[in-house]
Structure formats: structure tokens, C-alpha cells
Write a structure and sequence with these properties.
The protein has 377 residues and is α/β, with parallel strands linked by helices. Helix content is 27%, strand content 21%. Helix 3 packs parallel to helix 4. The longest helix is centred in the N-terminal third of the chain and has 13 residues. It is elongated, with a radius of gyration of 23 Å. 44% of the residues are buried.
């Protein structure tokens, strides 16, 4: 059975939306259709740039009059960095709007739809809403709860090792998987690791994508409870991207002063019962500075702590067709682990696909007691 026209055009809008790197704003795609043909389309490329609806109207020109718009999110009705899209649609003479979902942002939240209806534009809401919600899961959580969406990512061997017993980890995953990780970095506005990862791998933690004409300076967050980060670490080069070192009162005063003199931001937060940075305070602190999405790239101790405190919204694991072995080789999730299988978090909405020679598995932890996970899809 063929999909109805509305679904076909909304799928096109969703595909366009995925091209944008808009954090902390939502990803939005828009398609203008007249007499069954696309006359204009666009997507929100980056925060501060024209919105998807405006791009579509610009491409359609006079053909926009009397057309139908398919858009993945409610058109905005307020002034931000750009003018209200609802006003632009009214002025262009758009006849009908199909939107996948309402914008949860309190500044919009139905006001855009109402403005369109008041102007005599027909409005329909809900086509492919589930797909649109997943597309903007980061934005939706921040707007509804006020906390960042936390994704943990790890690349490992088939037997769950993220490095050999000697610490060698380059490269467990293949180039296609590493390219995908850079796209994941671009979709979050902070990239987080523990100090152990900095010491072992010396990562740069920047977004490197061939088609990006300008850099995306995502915030690099290093959790370092005693300021053990080496002076030579590449992540301390603030010319590449901003860096935030998060520590506790265990940090030596001279190290604290030295890092700040180099232009590195250092924040001292309370320690938890283990003496490490209290990750709950860290997540709240990042929320207060407007961080909507955090990509945690490990290592195993930090990922284990995030899971223990139930701070993880999404898990993305890459499995390479290699077996490393060894009881001393580090795993993606370290720490004590869960004492019983029934206490261990299970993943909901599990999805897997091949990325080059690797296999990517992703899902969403079920945290509520007794919560039933739906079957894998």
C-alpha cells in the first residue's frame, strides 16, 4: 500500500531536517507543495541562520502563494535571532500547513498554530509525530524537563573491550563509524570524557566533518576530580574549541590557577560519596549554562557512574568484528556493576545497523521500577 501524499512529503521534510547541525535549536525541515509538486524546500542549517520555512519560501518565490507546507515542527511565532516564521508564511499566502508536532518551547507551544489559524490558514498536526519527536529528542527533553539529554557512546570489540590490557585502542572501530561519531558530536552541544580517557587517548574532541564550511565549537567537558589532566593534553588547546574542566575541592590550587591562566575554564563542584565529581550536580550545572545535549565518550568509569545515577537517556555502542580478550582489558562499563540481572537497566526501542564493518546498537534505558520495555525493532 502506498503512503498518502501527506506522509510522503513529511518524510522528505524529516530527511531535510537531519542535514542540519542546529544545537541548541531543534532540527527542522520544510517542504512547500503546490498541485502535487514540490515548489520549495529547506532546512535549518545552524543556530542563528534562517529557519527551514524561510528557506523553503525563498526557493518557492511566488509559487508559495496557495501552496501547502509540510514542516517537522510548529512554525515559531516569536522574535529570536530570526523573525517569526508564522508571519512569513502568512505574508507569502500559504494556504495550508501540515506540522509533525507542536513546539514544546513555552515561547511557541501552540501560539504559532493559533496565529496561522487566525489568519485563515488551515492547520493539521500529528503526521509522523513519533519520528519527529525522536529527531529532536535532545531539544524536547531540555524544553520539557530543563535538563540536558545524555547519550553515552563507546566503541568496543565483540567481547566488550574498549582497549587491550596495554591500553592500545587505535583503532577498534572503522572509519565509517568514526565519521558517524563526528555527526553525533555535531548534534550535541557538549562532548564529555573522564580524565582517564584524556590520559590514555589524548583526544581532541572536536567536530570534524568534510562538508562543514565553518567549525562547530562544541563545549569539551573533562571530568577530573583531582586535576590530573596532563599539561600537554590536546583538549586544553582552547583555540580549537572551548574546554571546561570539572573538578572538586581536592584539586591542587597551583594546578587550578595554571589552567585558568591558559584560558581553560575550571569549575569546582561538590564531590559524591566516592570523592569524585557529583555527576548530578554537573548535569544541573551544564543545564544552567544552556547545554541541551551531552555526548559522553567515556571511558568505562564515567559511563558506569552515569548509569549508576540513572543520568543516561540513550546508549550507542559500536561493536567491531575483533576479539581482544583479557581480564585486565578495560570494558565500556567499569565499576562494581549490578549485583543482579533483574536490577540491570534494559534498553527500550533498540535499533541496530551495520556501519561499514562495525555494528551499531542503540537504545534507551528503562529506569522506572517495573517499567516494561517494548520489543526490539
Amino acid at each position: 500500500m502506498k503512503a498518502p501524499f501527506e506522509e510522503i512529503f513529511m518524510r522528505r521534510a524529516l530527511a531535510l531536517a537531519r542535514r542540519g547541525y542546529t544545537a541548541p535549536n531543534p532540527m527542522v525541515g520544510a517542504v512547500l507543495v503546490k498541485e502535487g509538486h514540490i515548489v520549495g524546500e529547506g532546512y535549518h542549517r545552524r543556530a542563528g541562520m534562517p529557519h527551514a520555512e524561510v528557506e523553503a519560501l525563498r526557493r518557492a518565490g511566488e509559487k508559495a502563494r496557495g501552496s501547502t507546507l509540510y514542516v517537522t515542527l510548529e512554525p515559531c511565532s516569536h522574535w529570536g535571532r530570526t523573525p517569526p516564521c508564522a508571519d512569513a508564511l502568512i505574508e507569502a499566502g500559504v494556504r495550508c500547513v501540515y506540522a509533525a508536532m507542536q513546539d514544546p518551547n513555552p515561547q511557541v507551544a501552540g501560539k504559532g498554530f493559533q496565529k496561522l489559524r487566525d489568519a485563515g490558514i488551515e492547520v493539521h498536526v500529528g503526521i509522523l509525530q513519533q519520528q519527529a519527536s525522536q529527531l529532536n529528542e535532545i531539544f524536547l527533553k531540555y524544553q520539557t524537563i530543563g535538563l540536558p539529554f545524555v547519550t553515552v557512546k563507546a566503541a568496543m570489540s565483540l567481547d566488550g573491550k574498549i582497549a587491550t590490557r596495554t591500553g592500545d585502542s587505535r583503532w577498534i572501530s572503522d572509519e565509517p563509524a568514526r565519521r558517524l561519531v563526528h555527526r553525533m558530536r555535531a548534534r550535541h552541544d557538549a562532548i564529555m570524557v573522564g580524565v582517564g580517557t584524556v590520559q590514555k587517548d589524548d583526544p581532541l574532541l572536536t567536530v570534524r566533518l568534510p562538508r562543514l564550511k565553518e567549525p562547530l565549537p562544541r563545549l569539551r567537558v573533562v571530568v577530573d576530580s583531582a586535576l590530573r589532566c596532563p599539561d600537554s593534553a590536546r583538549v586544553l588547546d582552547v583555540h580549537e574549541a572551548p574546554t571546561l574542566i570539572v573538578t572538586t575541592d581536592r584539586a591542587p590550587a597551583d594546578r587550578l590557577r595554571n589552567l585558568r591562566e591558559r584560558g581553560v575554564e575550571v569549575e569546582v563542584l561538590p564531590a559524591d560519596e566516592t570523592g569524585r565529581v557529583d555527576l548530578r550536580h554537573l548535569i544541573q550545572s551544564l543545564a544552567q549554562r544552556g547545554i541541551t545535549g551531552i555526548l559522553c565518550e567515556g571511558g568505562g568509569t564515567l559511563i558506569a557512574s552515569l548509569l549508576t545515577h540513572r543520568l543516561v537517556d540513550k546508549v550507542v555502542f559500536f561493536y567491531a568484528p575483533v576479539i581482544i580478550g583479557g581480564s585486565e582489558a578495560p570494558t565500556a562499563v567499569e565499576g562494581l556493576g549490578y549485583p543482579l540481572v533483574e536490577h540491570s537497566p534494559r534498553l527500550d526501542r533498540v535499533h541496530w545497523r551495520k556501519i561499514g564493518r562495525d555494528m551499531m546498537v542503540q537504545g534507551y534505558p528503562c529506569w522506572e521500577v517495573g517499567e516494561e520495555c517494548s520489543p526490539a525493532s
